[in-house]
Amino acid sequence: xxxxxxxxTKRKKISFCKRLLVSPRFxxxxxxxxxxxxxxxxxxxxxxxxxxxxxxxxxxxxxxxxNNTVENCLLFNTSEPQPKIECPIISxxxxxxxxxDISDEFSWEDTLQKYSSVRCGGHFRPSNCKARQKVALxxxxxxxxxxxxIFINHIHPFLMRQQLEYGIYIIDLDDExxxxxxxxxxxxxxxxxxxxxxxxxxxxxxxxxxxxxxxFYRCSDLPRHMSVAVDKHNYKxxxxxxxxxxxAMTKDQILFVNGFSNKYSGWGGEDDDMxxxxxxxxxxVFRSMEDISRYTMLKHAQSPPNPNxxxxxxxxxxxxxxxxxxxxxxxxxxxxxxxxxxxxxITL
Length: 348
Ligand code: BGC
Known about the structure:
The chain is an alpha/beta fold. It contains eight helices and eleven strands.
């Protein structure tokens, strides 16, 4: 009895297999499965090709923009005489909102020609009036040459239209050391302030392009968070404590809170830590309206977030006095004044 049961089950299985092999649905399923596997393979191959193409492009643009040194620009002398009359509070050259051009398909030679009034190291001062503020733009950098090209081409005319006196500092870290935005901004602040008596320091990510020149790049009595509305976040502020992207502080405000923490290696957290520092000292963050503080973010692969950032943040206020701009040791490996920006590479 038991034996015949087993035979029956076997027979059923065989007949099921036979039916399956002649079923058009089975073959259709197989084809769909194969197409699915092929699609995964092709996507992966394209992604790899895309990565290779990007590396080649980054190299090409690096050569293009790091090719011109001081021979091609006029030196900047801080003590040069300048007009006595102050520039107007609102510059007559402002154009308002304009979506930035994000193409990198333009000649760097043309950019250098267009902005030949910029002095070596990316310094500029209006010729017909005395700027109301001297502003240092501090840009932490790693390997994003395509973004740098687009950013520099966009930011010079933007700042010129605001009739500012300014200098642009690109700060890079030894390739052997993990990227650290807070630390790089601290170094950039120290180096820029040694060089010139700036009234305002703007911490600026290289992938953010301001859209509206009524978004004034200057400091006020309160620290400012400027990149309020970014296209990537549908032009909405993601959370109230955000201080990342673009923000502005005076020298006194920076020194008062001991700058950024130097402990946040990798992506994220250093700006939230700065917000906590400001809150700790009862310094309110000022923000302009969303329809003016608009930014376009250039596309890039998201860096992996630092998993320790939450722990660091929770203990941040205990370290505040020992961890910041006043307790930082570094060495400058390289410094070059290019025609449209100053570039520094540092190590620890
Ligand atoms: C990170 C910040 C970052 C923000 C916006 C937060 O989770 O800690 O560093 O600026 O996200 O992307």
